[in-house]
Design a protein that fits this description.
The chain is an alpha+beta fold. The chain has 2 domains: 115 residues, SspB-like (SH3 type barrels); 35 residues, no CATH class. The chain has 5 helices and 8 strands; from the N terminus they run H-H-E-E-H-E-H-E-E-E-E-E-H. The longest helix has 24 residues. The chain starts with a helix and ends in a 10-residue tail after the last helix.
Length: 153
């Protein structure tokens, strides 16, 4: 039951809206916060050097404070911010899908935990199977001469 719920599109939509609302609220009250996220879903422009990116864990915490907080914004379904990485403070623009935010943290306390695990690409694959499956099924049916008796004349 839980597995079906966390992979549900509507549940993911609600979680994304909650994430967005909390982040917007924190922007409005100027509250620094951290986001624990699936770093594989994040993009970096310019790309981070390998010696920096290879040190990331699959779940990585970004803390938005100071300059990073000042540059942070929501663009569509993404959280976008500038951050410095590594000993040389290598600057990069981070773009992170809101649904990839697993936790929002203030003062080491998680204020939101995102349990959704919905993947849009799975929904697209299922849709393609449905659309193509009917055509393929009908073609297979018509290729068998034994099935002619089932067709209306």
């Amino acid at each position: 039951m839980l597995e079906k719920l966390v992979q549900d599109r509507e549940f993911a939509k609600i979680m994304k809206e909650n994430i967005q609302n909390i982040i917007i609220h924190f922007f409005e009250i100027e509250q620094n916060f951290g986001v624990l996220c699936n770093v594989d879903d994040a993009s970096f422009e310019p790309p981070l050097p390998d010696e920096i990116s290879e040190n990331f864990n699959p779940l990585t915490l970004f803390f938005l404070a100071g300059y990073t907080f000042e540059t942070a914004r929501i663009e569509g379904e993404y959280l976008v911010f500038e951050a410095g990485f590594g000993a040389d403070n290598f600057g990069s623009l981070v773009t992170l899908p809101l649904v990839s935010v697993m936790q929002i943290i203030v003062d080491e306390t998680p204020l939101l935990i995102n349990l959704s695990n919905y993947k849009e690409e799975l929904d697209t694959v299922a849709q393609n199977i449905d659309e193509n499956g009917v055509e393929n099924s009908m073609a297979s049916f018509l290729n068998n001469p034994e099935n002619a008796k089932f067709l209306k004349k």
